[in-house]
Write a structure and sequence with these properties.
Blueprint: H1 6-11, E1 17-24, E2 27-34, E3 39-46, E4 51-55, H2 62-70, E5 74-79, H3 85-88, H4 91-97, E6 102-105, H5 110-123, H6 125-131, H7 135-138, E7 153-154, E8 160-163, E9 166-172, E10 181-185, E11 188-192, E12 195-196, E13 199-200, H8 210-223, E14 229-232, E15 238-239, H9 240-246
Parallel strand pairs: 4-5, 5-6, 6-7, 11-14
Antiparallel strand pairs: 1-2, 2-3, 3-4, 8-9, 9-10, 10-11, 12-13, 14-15
Amino acid sequence: MKKKNLTLSVLLGLVFLLGSCSKSGELVVLHQVTGPVETNCYLLYDAKTREAALIDVGGPIDSLVAQIEENDLHLKYIFATHVHMDHVEGVPRIKERFPDALVCYNEKDIDDFLRMPEWLKENYPEMYAGMMKVPEIKKWEDYDLSIFVKPDVYLEDSQIYKLGNLEIRTFLSPGHSAGSICFYVGDVLFSGDVLFFRQVGRTDLLGGSKEAIAKSVRRLYAELPDATRVYPGHGEFTDIGTEKTENEEVTVDAVTIKN
C-alpha cells in the first residue's frame, strides 16, 4: 500500500479499467488498476513468442484476462512484488484459470503475511477498523490465507526468468516488506511498493524498515539506467533518472523518510 494515501485509497472502492499499453522492443506491457486500494496489475509478454507474465494480481483482472485469451498468450508466470493482500488477492483465481502458470514470490514475506491481520489489529486499531468498513477489504477476513502462501517458485535476488527472448531480472528490495522483489525487463522496472512517483513505500508495516528501503532504492538508482521507466504498485509511472534527484524521500544524496 502507498503510505501517504492509505486511508483515502481504502475508501475509493474498486476500479477496473484497462490502462496503458506500451512496447519496448518485443516487450508489450498492458496495465489494469484493480482492487480496493487501486493496485496496478501488469501483463507483459514477448510479442514474437506470446509468452506472458502477470505482476501483482491484486483483484479481478477481467480486461487483462481478455487480452491473454484474445492474443492467444501463454501465461508462464504469475509474479508478486510482495505478499500483501492488495497485491495477491486475485492470484488463486488466476492460477485456477491458468493452472500451468507458475506462482512466484519471495519466501521472506510469508510468515509476515499470515501474521498481518492480527498485527494490524494490535498496532493500528483505528486504521484496521476503517478498513473493515470497506466490503471489498472486509471479505479478506474470510479468506483461508494458506492458499496464498504456497508458490510454485520462490524468488531470490538476481535471478533471470525468460519470456521468449525477453529476460526478467529480479531485485530483492526489502524495506516495504522483508521480501519485496522488483522486476527489470527491457527498459522497464516493475517496482511494487518500493519506489513510487516522488515517494518510496511505507516502512511502518510488519517487515518494513526505513534503512532497508533506502538501501534498496539507492541500489536501483545505482544499477539501472536513468531512462528506465518505473511502473509502481500504485499510482502514476515515473523514471529512475527523475527519482534520483526529485524523490521526496530517497534521492542519491539524501534520505528523509517519514514512516
